[in-house]
C-alpha cells in the first residue's frame, strides 16, 4: 500500500495548492478555536473546493459535539473526520455510524502503556493516528505542538487498520521516521511552517518529496508496509 502523506492545518489557498501540487494524499483543516491553524467552516469550504478530488479532505476536530459534526457534514462534507480529543471507542463508533463518515482516531503516545488502547480503537476506526502526548502546560494544544515521541515504541505496529504517524515531523526527520516505524502514513503540521499557522511552500514540497523518497527506498528494500 502506498505511503499516505497528510499536510495538516492548512489555512490559505497557497498552502492548499502547494500541498495538492506536491502530491499530498490528505489535507487537514483544523476546527479548534485555540489553534493558530483554526479555520471557520466557510474558509474550510472554500479551501476544500480547490481539492477537486486530488486529496482527501480531513476535518480535524477535538471532542466535537453532534451539532458541530452535523454542520461540518452538511457543509464541508469531509472524506474523513479526525478525532483528536478524549473520544472513547464508543463515541468513535457512534460518530461513524450516525454520520456515515470515515473516522481517524488519534492516540497520544508517551510510553508503551499508551498503546494498550490500540486494539479497542482499531476495532471502531478506519485509520489510527499516533501523535505525541501534549505537554501538561496551559498553552499546549491537544496536537500541533511540533513534538516528537519515541518512534521505537510503535515500530512495525499492525493492528489491522492503517496507522499514521505524527508529532514533530519535518522535512529533515520524516525519512528516518518512515524507515524506523514502517507505518502506513505520515502527518505534519508545524514542521512545514515558517511561523505558527503559516505554512511554508518550500517546506511542504520538501516534506512530501522526502516522504516519497523514503517510501520508495523502503519498498525497494522489500518492506511490504
Ligand atoms: O495543528 C493544530 O493546531 C492542532 C490543534 C489541535 C489538535 C491537533 C492539531 N494538530 C495535529 O497534531 C499533529 C501533530 O502536529 P505537529 O506536526 O507536531 O505540529 C498532527 O496530526 C496535526 O494534525
TrEMBL record:
Enzyme class, spelled out = isomerase
Q: Which interval of the chain is the signal sequence? A: none
GO terms (molecular function) for this protein are:
phosphoribosylanthranilate isomerase activity
Task: Name the domain of life.
Answer: Bacteria
| SUPFAM superfamilies assigned | Ribulose-phoshate binding barrel
Pfam assignment, any one: PRAI
EC numbers: 5.3.1.24
Offer one example of a GO biological process linked to this entry: L-tryptophan biosynthetic process
In this chain the N-(5'phosphoribosyl) anthranilate isomerase (PRAI) domain maps to 5-209
Q: Which UniProt keywords apply?
A: Amino-acid biosynthesis, Aromatic amino acid biosynthesis, Isomerase, Tryptophan biosynthesis
InterPro entries reported in the protein's UniProt record: Aldolase_TIM (IPR013785), PRAI_dom (IPR001240), RibuloseP-bd_barrel (IPR011060), TrpF_fam (IPR044643)
| Pathway this chain belongs to | Amino-acid biosynthesis; L-tryptophan biosynthesis; L-tryptophan from chorismate: step 3/5
Keyword Amino-acid biosynthesis carried by entry: yes
Q: Which reaction does it catalyse?
A: N-(5-phospho-beta-D-ribosyl)anthranilate = 1-(2-carboxyphenylamino)-1-deoxy-D-ribulose 5-phosphate
Keyword check for Nucleotide-binding, yes or no.
no
Quote the PANTHER family the UniProt record gives. N-(5'-PHOSPHORIBOSYL)ANTHRANILATE ISOMERASE
User: Which family is it part of?
Assistant: Belongs to the TrpF family.
Q: Which NCBIfam families match?
A: PRK01222.1-1
Q: What is this protein called?
A: N-(5'-phosphoribosyl)anthranilate isomerase
Q: Which organism is it from?
A: Phreatobacter stygius
- Give me the gene this protein comes from: trpF
Amino acid at each position: 500500500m502506498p505511503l499516505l502523506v497528510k499536510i495538516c492545518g492548512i489555512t490559505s489557498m497557497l498552502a492548499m495548492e502547494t500541498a495538492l501540487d506536491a502530491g499530498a494524499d490528505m489535507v487537514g483543516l483544523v476546527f479548534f478555536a485555540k489553534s493558530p491553524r483554526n479555520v471557520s467552516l466557510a474558509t474550510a469550504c472554500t479551501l476544500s473546493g480547490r481539492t477537486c478530488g486530488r486529496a482527501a479532505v480531513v476535518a480535524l476536530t477535538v471532542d466535537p459535539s453532534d451539532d458541530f459534526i452535523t454542520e461540518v457534514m452538511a457543509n464541508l462534507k469531509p472524506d474523513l473526520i479526525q478525532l483528536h480529543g478524549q473520544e472513547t471507542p464508543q463515541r468513535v463508533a457512534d460518530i461513524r455510524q450516525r454520520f456515515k463518515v470515515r473516522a481517524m482516531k488519534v492516540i497520544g503516545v508517551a510510553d508503551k502503556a499508551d498503546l494498550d488502547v490500540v486494539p479497542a480503537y482499531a476495532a471502531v476506526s478506519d485509520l489510527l493516528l499516533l501523535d505525541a502526548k501534549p505537554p501538561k502546560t496551559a498553552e499546549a494544544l491537544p496536537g500541533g505542538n511540533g513534538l516528537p515521541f519515541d518512534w521505537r515504541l510503535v515500530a512495525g505496529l499492525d493492528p489491522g487498520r492503517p496507522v499514521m504517524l505524527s508529532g514533530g515531523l519535518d522535512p529533515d526527520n520524516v525519512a528516518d521516521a518512515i524507515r524506523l516505524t514502517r507505518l502506513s502514513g505520515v502527518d505534519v503540521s508545524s514542521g512545514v511552517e515558517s511561523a505558527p499557522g503559516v505554512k511554508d511552500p518550500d517546506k511542504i514540497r520538501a516534506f512530501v518529496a522526502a516522504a516519497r523518497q523514503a517510501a520508495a527506498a523502503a519498498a525497494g528494500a522489500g518492506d511490504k508496509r
